[in-house]
Amino acid sequence: MSLQDRLYEDMKQAMKAREAGKLRLGVIRMSRAALKNRAIALGHDLTDEETIEVLAKEVKMRRDALLEYQNAGRQEKVAELQSEIQILEEYLPQQLSKDEIMQLAQEVIDSVKATNERDLGRVMGGLMPKVKGRADGKLINQCVRVLLKSGNE
User: Fold this and answer.
1) Whether pTM exceeds 0.85
2) Cβ pair 7, 48 in contact under 8 A
3) Do residues 87 and 27 touch, judged by C-beta distance below 8 A?
4) d(C-alpha 84, C-alpha 55), whole Å
């Protein structure tokens, strides 16, 4: 079953659950709308990889909004966004731990023979395809920077 089929089936289940599935239903509907918009923009049905990209983007948007609401002291909205993120993460591949990211980053650093932070672009270019959809870009960037700085010392 494709990821989009799973979303559709979960949407039907949430509709049957009525009140208990209201938040889940809303999140799935928003995600399906984003997927449909992306498919229209690309001009073809999305692959599972493209579907994961769109869902990861949806999670990132909610995480960014989460920080804004935390800074504004809007705890009810923070709780809602955390629930939405949790629902969306069910459809994403298992996220990599910081240690796994560090290990992959070190392998790429060794392969491109990076020595300092000026090589960040080359390292990120080699690393991102390996971790696409399985890790947050900010965390990846931080890990690479730490490794590049420690390599200089």
Assistant:
1) no
2) no
3) yes
4) 12
Alpha-carbon distance 63 to 73, whole Å? 15
DSSP string computed for 44-59: SPPPHHHHHHHHHHHH
Q: Are residues 21 and 53 in the same domain?
A: yes
How far apart (Å, rounded) are the C-alpha atoms in residues 130 and 38? 23
CATH code: domain of residue 133: 1.10.10.410
Identify the three-state secondary structure at position 93. Answer: coil
Which pLDDT tens digit goes with each residue over 95-135?
A: 888 888 888 888 888 888 877 778 788 888 888 888 877 78
Q: How far apart are CA 131 and CA 142, in angstroms?
A: 14
C-alpha–C-alpha distance, residues 57 and 39, integer Å: 15
Q: Which domain holds residue 140?
A: 98-152
In the three-class reduction of DSSP (H, G, I as helix; E, B as strand; rest coil), residue 43 is classed as coil
Structure tokens at 64: 């960014």
